[in-house]
Amino acid sequence: MAVIIAAGVGTATYLHAERSFERQVAGAADEELARLSARATEIAATRNINPTDAFGAALDERLQMRIHRSFGHFVYARIFAPGVDAIREVADPDFPLAPGVTTDRAMRPPGSGERTTTERLRSDRAPLVRVLAPLRDGSGTIRGEVELIFAAASTTATEARRQTLALTAGSVVVVLLTAGLIYPVVRRLLERLAESSARLLDANLSALALLGAAIAKRDSDTDAHNYRVTLYSMVLGEAAGLSTRQMQVLLKGAFLHDVGKIGIRDTVLLKPARLTEEEFSVMRTHVQHGVEMVSRSPWLADAAEVVGSHHEKFDGSGYPRALRGNQIPITARIFAVVDVFDALTSRRPYKEALSFDDTIAVLEQGRDTHFDGRILDAFLPIAPGLFQRYGGREDEGIRDEVRRLSARYFPVEAPLL
């Protein structure tokens, strides 16, 4: 950025200096024209001749006297009478003009205006200014017109070019030095910001894990289910090609999928037997409780995708909104598969664990009714490996695996999940 800014400032400085010098050359040309015009007026009065002849006489005097002012001088002149081509042409023999310069008519042709105008001409030798000025008699009537070419002195042009380059280089150096001086400060501030962001993210992830674990322990005597379904979800999410953002949503949603159970009374939540219809209606409210809870936190709000939809079914027979098909967020469709898979392969107080083959058979029975068939197709190839490595485990190793995966999608130095 410093180099880009320096280049921009340098270019702007160079162009400004160039235009400033061009204005100085034009100003010097105006001054020379004023001197010639004043002398031509004197000659016209003393010799009683017309303005065009008087101006020509003034030019002759100037050339004979070899007056070369420090900033520059006229090197070419043509005098026109009204309706007549050039009647007088004078050139400085010491300053031959390149072919075509004297015939440039980009500004306006002689005889087409009543005011003095100037334009810049291009030349390899020195900056040139072309001047067109009307010639008036004592009464102010236009009696002719003069075309002049003013050349800046070579020493002046060289000095101006040197100053322009020096000013441009100076501005570039100042920008780069300033950037160099503030770089350590900016870098340190950015490092502190990154450290603060990492600590904040780490704290958020730790709170996420603790909240999910607390709810899981209230529902049973271990939080291992939360870690397993989170791990299964992330592996399946990768297999399904989820984006980084979707993986973050899936991680948070998996940990907090049952957070709403904190609002369910113990007689229903901890009942060891099958729930009655009334009790099941109460249990269903944990979804809405969970959505309300996570929605209060800007950082957790997107977890509502999973929290609010993980009990929906692909055919629309789920709850709480009876969503169907792609109406169900893909993160919730992924979680629904792994949640049932872990529930079936895990021992609970009210049931024994099913075998892997029996569990897969149950999942297949739910294809395109309970589960998205495409998600199930992505899960079946990786299911044997997941079951073999993590099925029923409650040790610290499974937590380490989740920490490793969380660091991939929430890059902090030491995730504390």
In words, what does this structure look like?
The chain has 417 residues and is an alpha+beta fold. It has two domains: 159 residues, PAS domain (Beta-Lactamase, 2-Layer Sandwich), CATH 3.30.450; 190 residues, Hypothetical protein af1432, CATH 1.10.3210. It is built from 14 helices and five strands. It has a five-stranded antiparallel sheet with strand order 2-1-5-4-3. The longest helix is centred in the middle third of the chain and has 66 residues.
Secondary structure elements and pairings:
Blueprint: H1 2-47, H2 51-65, E1 72-80, E2 86-91, E3 117-121, E4 128-136, E5 142-152, H3 154-219, H4 224-239, H5 244-255, H6 266-269, H7 277-284, H8 286-295, H9 304-307, H10 330-345, H11 356-365, H12 373-379, H13 383-390, H14 396-409
Antiparallel strand pairs: 1-2, 1-5, 3-4, 4-5
Helix pairs in contact: 1-2, 1-3, 4-5, 4-10, 4-14, 10-11
CATH class of the largest domain: Mainly Alpha
Strand content: 5-15%
* Overall 3D shape: rod-shaped
Main sheet?
Answer: 5 strands, antiparallel
**Overall average residue pLDDT:** 80
Fourth-level CATH superfamily of the largest domain: Hypothetical protein af1432
Quick overview:
A hairpin with a 5-residue loop joins strand 1 (72-80) and strand 2 (86-91). 57% of the residues lie in helices and 10% in strands.
